[in-house]
């Protein structure tokens, strides 16, 4: 498995692939890869001749008080996990390669970025769209793979691709969970044993919501109340948001009649975790 660190080199390799008529899938990640990332790589491998996994902890999507410097990193493990899942190479640039001195251009999507994660993390999506736009220009993939785990991120990228005419097909892949229901995340390593147990309230509260919806409950308020009560029973958990939104516009829904997304963000100790599910698609 090759580890490519410069834009020049990845461009040369992809250009050779394209000349030979190969299709290219891109899986953008921040590394510390787990089975969630691997499921994206596997799907990319099944649908493309070549797969580029980018590993880049993107500073522009972190705000000053977030975990940029402590974000977990393990490039050896990333190489192994990527290889195992069928990647062709890893693109792992330095920050100075992606943001050289004088860098001063950003991509910003509006609307879908202003709610949920965007409301709690105001500069986050500007960083995401900028780095993903750059990766699309550098790698020029036919398809790019994102996880439903970050449902809003996938919606934001779809908006960017539509609005700016990137010739890329965006593919959204299902959430991969631990056996007990916790959504896999690189940030799960921050959790102590006690916090890891407490973190189960996220998936458990979503399960409760699913059950209510299946039984015909239409009131978003009632469902959110039940979820809030469930999470509040866990002393280590602090709710950032619990929302029920239209699956596409991400705007709040009061009466559930069409497909909805139920995204939640909960702090477990110092670790902020997100999870979600879509109902009625
Ligand atoms: P990250 O490294 O956290 O930026 O994630 C890179 C990509 O992997 C994003 O598109 C995520 O949505 C996706 N991803 C992360 N965790 C999971 C998971 N548990 N299941 C599916 N996709 C995931």
UniProtKB/TrEMBL annotation:
Localisation per UniProt entry: Cytoplasm
Name this polypeptide is given: Pantothenate synthetase
Pathway: Cofactor biosynthesis; (R)-pantothenate biosynthesis; (R)-pantothenate from (R)-pantoate and beta-alanine: step 1/1
Active-site residues, record numbering mapped to chain: 37 (proton donor)
Gene name as annotated: panC
Annotated organism of origin: Candidatus Enterococcus moelleringii
Chief subcellular location: cytoplasm
Note: The reaction proceeds by a bi uni uni bi ping pong mechanism.
E.C. code: 6.3.2.1
The keyword Zinc-finger appears for this protein: no
Catalysed reactions, as listed in the record: (R)-pantoate + beta-alanine + ATP = (R)-pantothenate + AMP + diphosphate + H(+)
């Amino acid at each position: 498995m090759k580890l490519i660190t410069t834009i020049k080199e990845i461009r040369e390799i992809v250009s050779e692939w394209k000349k030979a008529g190969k299709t290219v899938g891109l899986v953008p990640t921040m590394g510390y890869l787990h089975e969630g990332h691997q499921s994206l790589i596997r799907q990319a491998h099944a649908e493309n001749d070549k797969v580029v996994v980018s590993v880049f902890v993107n500073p522009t999507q972190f705000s000053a008080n977030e975990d940029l410097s402590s974000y977990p990193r393990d490039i050896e493990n990333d190489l192994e996990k990527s290889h195992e899942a069928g990647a062709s190479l890893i693109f792992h640039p330095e920050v100075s390669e992606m943001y050289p001195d004088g860098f001063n251009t950003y991509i910003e999507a509006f609307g879908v970025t202003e709610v949920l994660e965007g409301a709690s993390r105001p500069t986050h999506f500007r960083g995401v769209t900028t780095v993903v736009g750059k990766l699309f220009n550098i790698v020029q993939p036919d398809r790019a793979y994102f996880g439903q785990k970050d449902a809003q991120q996938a919606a934001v990228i779809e908006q960017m691709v539509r609005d700016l005419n990137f010739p890329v097909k965006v593919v959204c892949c299902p959430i991969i969970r631990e056996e007990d229901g916790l959504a896999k995340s690189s940030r799960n390593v921050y959790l102590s044993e006690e916090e890891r147990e407490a973190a189960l309230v996220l998936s458990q509260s979503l399960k409760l919501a699913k059950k209510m919806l299946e039984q015909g409950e239409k009131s978003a308020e009632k469902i959110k109340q039940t979820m809030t009560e469930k999470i509040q029973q866990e002393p280590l958990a602090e709710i950032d948001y619990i929302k029920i939104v239209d699956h596409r516009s991400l705007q709040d829904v009061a009466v559930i009649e069409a497909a909805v997304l139920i995204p939640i963000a909960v702090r477990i100790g110092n670790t902020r975790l997100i999870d979600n599910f879509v109902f009625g698609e």
